[in-house]
Each structure stands twice: as structure tokens, then as C-alpha cells.
User: What shape does this take?
Amino acid sequence: MRVLLIGANGQLGHDVRRVWPIERPSDELVCLDHGQIEVADLVSVRAAVGAARPDLVVNTAAYHRTDEVESQPERAFAVNAVGARNLALACREADAVLLHLSTDYVFGGRKATPYVEDDPVDPINVYGVTKAAGEMLVRATWPRHFVVRSSGLYGVAGSSGKGGNFVETMLRLAREGRPIRVVDDQTLTPTPTRELARQLAVLAGTERHGTYHATCQGEASWHAFAAEIFRQAGLSPALSSQSTAESGAAAPRPHYSVLDNRALRRAGIDVLPDWRDGLAGYLAERQTATPTDVGGRG
Ligand SMILES: NC(=O)c1ccc[n+]([C@@H]2O[C@H](COP(=O)([O-])OP(=O)(O)OC[C@H]3O[C@@H](n4cnc5c(N)ncnc54)[C@H](OP(=O)(O)O)[C@@H]3O)[C@@H](O)[C@H]2O)c1
Assistant: This one.
């Protein structure tokens, strides 16, 4: 299979590049970064997809600085919604499958139990609205798609959209000996991009198109996640909790956005570990990564 990866220098893109050749060695991977394709521009998208002649397009590109996006709805809509539509159109023209990444933030957090794939979306911030629109445009444009929602991503490349990642930020603050306050009223499932990349490779080997939740197992508040990072790293900084309101973030966040990987489980292809084991894998991996790899954009 010829696979075209969009957003190849991003956090998830970096791990797709590393994991795909291991998981699917007979695939040919063509990688494009932002300098080589602009997803918001249909001409650019058609040219890139036309030149690569892929069987599968994996779209990890997004504009996802959640707070900044509140005041940049046009740009966010162009990348996250129109960009997804452009890729779906180009995939339809090329008869290629589209695997498009989405987010837990398409949900508003009013549930108290994990969200399943067919729960109605009800985003409460601009980022979530644009991602929900992107999903809908993909579904409305081209049936041969996978829409994969994940949550709380972190990887050795660090998020280029957000700069660094949560784990590296926590470790840095602990090293600096600063008191650390982390929100305890947002519950989600932290997921390493390396584990998600493996799951994407497994899913791509099927013809079971549709919408999937793909996070690690279990759930944690950001505060519980921070506490587990310090426990596993053998650190004991002064960690305390704060509420989302106290944090002063510009964008509202869902209080509960845990995703149930029900569709993956029913298909018998859920390979994602418990979030604590995912964290242990990341902490081991960062020991062997180069310094510029680890949260390099932070
Ligand atoms: N990070 C999270 O916690 C999280 C949680 C749930 C879901 N997701 C979703 O998971 C996916 C991957 O996230 P990530 O953390 O890997 O993001 P990331 O590190 O910001 O990577 C995104 C990549 O896309 C590129 N890109 C941005 N705008 C583009 C455009 N208009 N055209 C072409 N390329 C563009 C970026 O390049 P430049 O940096 O050069 O612009 C970057 O290399 C996204 O769909 C995101 O919505 C993320």
C-alpha cells in the first residue's frame, strides 16, 4: 500500500513515521510537512495527492492551540474543517482511503461515563466545533474514511501546535523546583503518540471504515496524570490542584471527555495499553531519544 502522511513533522506524524515501517513493512510511506502541503488550499491538496497516487492518506495536520483558536475561528475552520473536506475530495478523486484524526473535544463533557463513537457531538470550544465540522465534512464527502478521535496526546517530538508536551513540561517544572498547580476537574485519557501510531497502522490494515475512538485504557484528571508522572519518575515536587476556572484558560474545556474504544474492541483490534503503562513506555523511550527529539519544540 502507498501511504501519504500529512503533518509528518508534528508530534503524531513523527511517531507514524517511526512506527509504520515496523508495523507495515511492505507499505511505502510518503511524508509531507507543512512546507510541502497546505491542507486549507484545495489546489495544494489536489497537487500533493495527485503526485503521490496514494492508497491511503493519513491526515494528522491540525490547528489545535485550543486557547488561541478561540480568537482565530476563521483560520481554525480553514485548517480543521475545510482542510479535512479538501483531503476527502482529493481522496475521492484518487480513490484513496482517508484516515483523519479528530479529538475528544468534539464532546462537551456533560456525560459521566465514557463517550462511545455514536454519541452526539456537542463541542463547547471553537477548536472542538471546527474538528466536529471536519469530521462531518469527511463523512459527507467520501465513505472510504476512518475518523479516529484521540485524547491528551504526547510524544517525543512534542506538539508543534502547542509546543512541547505535558509530560516534558511537568518534568521541567519539577527540575526547576517550582510549585506546580494542575487542574483536577478535567478528566480524559492521556495517550502517547507512539501507541496511537501503532493503533492507526493496525486499523489501516482493515476495510472497516467509519468512526473510531482510540485512546489508552482508563482515565485520569490532568492532576492525577501529573502525580503519576512524578511517581514513575521518582520525583516529589510541590504539586497542588486548581480548577479550570482558576487556571484562567481562554477556552472552555469539557470536564469529562473520556472516550470508550468500543468500535476497536468490537472489531477485536484494540491494541492500546492502560494509560499508566503508556506513560511508562514513554518515559523509557525518552531516555534513548536525542535531546532535540524530546519535546524539541518546547
Ligand atoms: N495534541 C493533542 O493533545 C491532541 C488530542 C486529541 C486529538 N489531537 C489531534 O491529533 C492530530 C495530531 O496532533 P499533534 O499533536 O500531532 O499535532 P501537531 O504536533 O501540532 O502536528 C500537526 C502538524 O500539522 C502541520 N500543519 C498544521 N497546519 C497545517 C496546514 N494548514 N497544512 C498542512 N500541515 C499543517 C504542522 O506543521 P507546522 O507546525 O509546521 O505548522 C504539524 O507538523 C490532530 O488532528 C489533532 O487535532 C491532538
User: Anything to note?
Assistant: The pocket of NAP is lined by residues 7, 9-13, 33-34, 37-40, 60-64, 79, 83, 101, 103, 131, 150-153, 159-161 (CB under 6 Å). The chain has a mean pLDDT of 95. The longest strand covers residues 97-103.
